[in-house]
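Complex 470.
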Amino acid sequence: MAAASVQGPSESNDRILRSEPTERILRSEPTERILRSEPTERILRIQGGQRLDGRVRISGAKNAALKALAASLLTDEEVVLNNVPMIADVLSMAELLREFGAEVEVDRANERVRVQTRQVARTDAPPSLFKATRASVVVTGPMLARAGEISFALPGGDQIGKRPIDMHLKGFARMGTEVERGEDVVHARVKRLHGARIYMDYPSHTGTEALMMAATRAAGTTTIMNASYEPEIVWLGNMLNRMGARISGLGTPFITIEGVERLRGVSEIVLPDRLEAATFAVAAVITGGQITLEDVTGVHLVPIAEKLAEAGAEVWRQDNRMLIKAGSELRAVDIQTLPYPGFPTDSQSTFMPLLTQATGVSRVHERVYEDRLRYTDELLKMGADIRVQAFGENREVLATSAEVHGPTPLTGARVRSLDIRSAVGVVLAGLVAEGETQITDVHHIDRGYQDFVGKLAAVGADIVDTDPPA
Ligand code: EPU
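Predicted structure with EPU bound:
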């Protein structure tokens, strides 16, 4: 097989790595643009029809690295994180930590971030930074534990549903925090958190993380019931234990945290990004090719591997590698998204283009977010036959399920990215479409995928970024 390795830094990354000092990188223009949430003129141009073949090294998980950065606020010692994806959301979190008084060094070449917060300098989060990502909400837990106070604007992130934070706030209140909610601002204050029994109505991912981190330094024992046990949470809990926390029950819906007086520094390796891995797995199958995913944790990819196999693909696994190969046919499969180990909601939009190429009718039921199918309009522009069932009134039309009729040939078109995950979904559709696909609002991809274009090009995709990040 004509293997194209992307193990080392790709060319565009290399340019970034050779160049600027940390300070400039942190305040680089694309990050600034993303923080201001401004769309750019940049577009991705893809000529469809190339079969992808080669190896892709999977980066560290965004949704673990961001929480580990937040966890660094729990100690005055140094926290070193390796295998950190060099993406805009990480840079944005680094900025937020700096505002709180942390010294943060981002070493792009080694994918390493060092953080040390000797003292918390302020407890009011700058609104534009806080709103830049949904993940910023997890700093609330460490800030309450360390400084006893935080005020923040309601967090941002992708527009995929309502995304409230009531479970985080209810949990803090159970631990003795006074929570005041203004129109757009929340002010939380506590003398010292105390342990509590917390039942979550839904196993919120960031909710579990924020409460678990807060409880590590609370007086007494906290139990979180109906906790989320996504792999990134288990990984974070283990990191906290290495910092001196006393957490048990990780990987189950019952987490117990015995509070301790202080936590110490730690050096960690961020676990692989299962969502990036799923994206490249689909890229292999949709183009009729084969890709070896390197540096993955196989068990975290079980839902993806099972569905790909059911659709007719070949999936081989050995140690921390997975070979994904298109089969002789592509069959329709049904998908419903659920918390782990259910099929991840973040891979729903990644699978959708694949289903347009499968024979038969696939049914997709989005059960985590109430509004995560809007992007399918973009695939319709390319010729897909996706019938979304919508409900609601006026501007509140919501959709949670879709029927995908396939196979339908896709044709290149000018399409838009709506959020991180649907952005890569339209790229995958472009890989198999006839002619040129142009994708706008590309900044969404920078938020969550390290060198996405470079990695795709290295395995044979004909894809160009008209204005790659500096
Ligand atoms: N929910 C509530 N109340 C709450 C919290 C959540 O009703 O207080 C509901 C939400 O509205 C949603 C469901 O619970 O319908 C799931 O939300 P959850 O809180 O679990 O999601 P999250 O923590 O905001 C994280 C990831 C998402 C990922 C979900 C599900 C981060 C920064 N984000 O979001 O990732 O989709 O968990 O696994 O960790 C992405 O990476 O692109 C992304 C969107």
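The longest strand covers residues 398-406.
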